[in-house]
Design a protein that fits this description.
The protein is globular. With 144 residues, it is of the alpha+beta class. It is built from two helices and eight strands; from the N terminus they run E-E-H-E-E-E-E-E-E-H. It has a single domain, classed as SH3 type barrels, CATH 2.30.30. Helix content is 26%, strand content 40%. This is Sm-like protein LSM1B. Keywords: Ribonucleoprotein, RNA-binding.
Length: 144
């Protein structure tokens, strides 16, 4: 039988029913990512890239040659982290990177770590200022 199907025979007819294993192996399993390059998004917004060494039943992942990719506007920097343990409850997304595509769009440029930290700080301060200004404007117009 092709396609991993189980044949159920009753007195009337023969039915083809997909086996449970066929459904299990269609879904992405974290075990299929072993020794592959992963992108992991964390709850705090950080982006970790590295090669998965191992995992456990709680979704914790050990990543080697890991680095944190920091973005600010049209710039980025890769901060080396080495061997890293990512707790499963901190990961929002774990996915394999497709090595046949470029990792980043061409308009994003690489900069040094001090430069990206300055740009990131300015970006965060700008967003905090915008949220504060928006809050003040909402309070102002709520009173009218």
């Amino acid at each position: 039988m092709s396609g991993g199907c189980v044949v159920l025979i009753n007195s009337q007819s023969i039915m083809m029913v997909p086996s449970v294993l066929e459904y299990i192996f269609r879904t992405p399993c974290i075990g299929s990512y072993l020794d592959r390059k992963l992108l992991i998004l964390l709850l705090d917004g950080r982006c970790i890239i590295g090669t998965m060494c191992t995992f456990d039943q709680y979704g914790n992942v050990v990543v080697e040659s890991a680095f944190e990719r920091i973005f600010a506007e049209n710039q980025y920097c890769d901060k080396p982290m080495g061997l890293l343990v990512v707790r499963g409850d901190n990961a929002i997304f774990i996915g394999e990177m497709d090595l046949s595509f470029p990792e980043l769009p061409p308009h994003i440029t690489a900069v040094s770590l001090p430069q990206i930290l300055i740009a990131r700080k300015a970006e965060l301060q700008s967003s905090v200022f915008k949220r504060t200004l928006k809050k003040w404007m909402e309070e102002l117009f709520d009173g009218i």
